[in-house]
Amino acid sequence: xxxxxxxxxxxxxxxxxxxxxxxxxxxxxxxxxxxxxxxxxxxxxxxxxxxxxxxxxxxxxxxxxxxxxxxxxxxxxxxxxxxxxxxxxxxxxxxxxxxxxxxxxxxxxxxxxxxxxxxxxxxxxxxxxxxxxxxxxxxxxxxxxxxxxxxxxxxxxxxxxxxxxxxxxxxxxxxxxxxxxxxxxxxxxxxxxxxxxxxxxxxxxxxxxxxxxxxxxxxxxxxxxxxxxxxxxxxxxxxxxxxxxxxxxxxxxxxxxxxxxxxxxxxxxxxxxxxxxxxxxxxxxxxxxxxxxxxxxxx
Length: 299
Fold this sequence. Notes:
The protein is α/β, with parallel strands linked by helices and 299 residues long. 58% of the residues lie in helices and 12% in strands. Among the domains are: 1-115, Conserved hypothetical protein from pyrococcus furiosus pfu- 392566-001, ParB domain (Alpha-Beta Complex); 229-296. It has twelve helices and eight strands. Strands 1, 2, 3, 4, 5 and 6 form a six-stranded mixed β-sheet that branches.
């Protein structure tokens, strides 16, 4: 069957629309859009945002492909430096599973694509079509924003997600690397992660170990994190209230002791007892001296 390529002249939205149309068509039609190519002629996609593939999930997909065939073609572009050779744009999970299933060929759509558009195309296609791990998804969003110089709002429009969802997913990259690895390995869920991201790194790790060791639910984790925050807020408030007061008390006590010393030097009875300054007068002369001290001394 003659090859028919899909071009990118009208931009990424156009090609994704045409690919979607191809997915929805009977794959046995004669349009030439979907063709069979040698599975070994496809080289891995160096721009693939997905880093972790679950072996059990791949085997399940391989079993499905063996029984029902591949329902969605992979997306490739021709290697201009080598005949009958292709680079994968999207569908690495389908390609891996087809190899596990022992397939010698695979259904594919060949795309004519400009080099600078490959990254964006791979990112958007994977975000839209693959069940990416939350961390891989966050990296895809981040790279799409950086590569294309676009905002969270623009990403949301391109992939039909809410801006809040984009922002919340990107926040997962603020997690400690150890915690991120636990998400990649599916030891904790994205629900757990959204709560952990509000904690400092050391506490993130501590709570993560508790989630895994005690099999805590998201609701239980939420309670633990709330207790940690409440405890921290109480500690900060306590320090903010008491510490200045203690400093003030110390300064006041020192000042009162200095006053006592001045009064003693003027032969006036004065004592500092339990934060109180007690002055006693034996005669009118001592009262006059005390009055003069108050008027003239700078304490």
